[in-house]
Amino acid sequence: MNILIIGAGNMGLTYGQSFIDASAIGTGQLYFLDRTDLRQAEVQRLSAHPLATQPDAFIRDMDLVIVAVKPQDFKALAASIKPFLRPHQLILSVMAGISVETLRGQFGAAKVVRAMPNLPAQVGQGMTVFTASAEVSRLEIFTVQNLLSTTGKTLYVEKEPLLDAATAISGSGPAFVFYFMEAMMQAGRQMGFSESEAQLLVRQTFLGSLDLLHRNSLHCGEWIRRVSSKGGTTEAALASYAAAGLQEAITAGLEAARQRAVELSGQAS
Q1: What is the mean pLDDT of residues 41-62?
Q2: What pLDDT is stored for residue 269 in this prediction?
Q3: N or C: which end of the chain has fewer CB within 10 A?
């Protein structure tokens, strides 16, 4: 399988590195296209082919074209590569907010997969949710899922609107985790810990808690109950959070993110 990755930025290079590390393809099957040759050195470590800076006939030989550019660059890119695309080719977009219908229309392609990865994909711990147009076969969905799984976990959904929800929960989610961690670190500093001590306390607490969750079948609510004791410190904090409406605020924030994803999808159409 020949794969072209359009966009040699962090996400494009992450996919290239993951495919090679997992032996999903060889360096001779991996191609890159970018507007500039600034990432030529990085590309040379992954591909037997030089970084292309202009669309050309070589695109016709690709089985899968991965589009990993900024959404604002999408329409200009689509116009430049559309003449080189062929009906059998599969298009995989990891651009936020660009719908399957828009991708099909701008590329003139029937086989389109739209995916929403997140930042931890860069370290092989990503969460990617994806959907596909009706023309994409089950075998092709399986192939794409295997490739995306080289960067972490994947979830295929038939209903495209769920990608907007995934954008809110898993796409933006790492920022919310870091937000809560930073709030805990700040509280730790206010309580007397040094910067490094507060970071150690919070980072290890998150790491250890996730490890517990992964190693057992218990859900989060059960773990909360196990940490809490009647009249204890954890219960005091949870009561404070409830009084402040933290659960409702989190839900409202995620819904705001989902609504914004819907708006961006509409603007890109």
Answers
A1: 95
A2: 62
A3: C
Query: What are the DSSP calls for the chain, one per residue?
Result: --EEEE--SHHHHHHHHHHHHTTSS-GGGEEEE-SSSTTHHHHHTT-SSPPB-S--GGGGG-SEEEE-S-GGGHHHHHHHHGGG--TT-EEEE--TT--HHHHHHHHT-S-EEEEE--GGGGGT-EEEEEEE-TTS-HHHHHHHHHHHGGGEEEEE-S-TTHHHHHIIIIISHHHHHHHHHHHHHHHHHHTT--HHHHHHHHHHHHHHHHHHHHHS---HHHHHHHH--TTSHHHHHHHHHHHTTHHHHHHHHHHHHHHHHHHHHHHH-
- Interatomic CA distance for residues 33 and 6, integer angstroms: 5
Max Cα–Cα distance, the chain, nearest Å:
71
Q: How many residues does the chain have?
A: 269
* 237 vs 267, residue with greater confidence: 237
Amino acid residing at 40: Q
Digit-coded pLDDT (tens) for 58-98: 999 999 999 999 988 999 999 999 999 998 999 999 998 89
Q: Where in the chain is the domain with CATH 1.10.3730.10?
A: 172-265
3-158 CATH fold: Rossmann fold (3.40.50)
Task: With beta carbons less than 8 A apart as the criterion, state whether 77 and 6 touch.
Answer: yes
CATH for 172-265 is 1.10.3730.10
pLDDT of residue 264: 83
* CB proximity list for 76: less than 8 A, separation 6 or greater: none
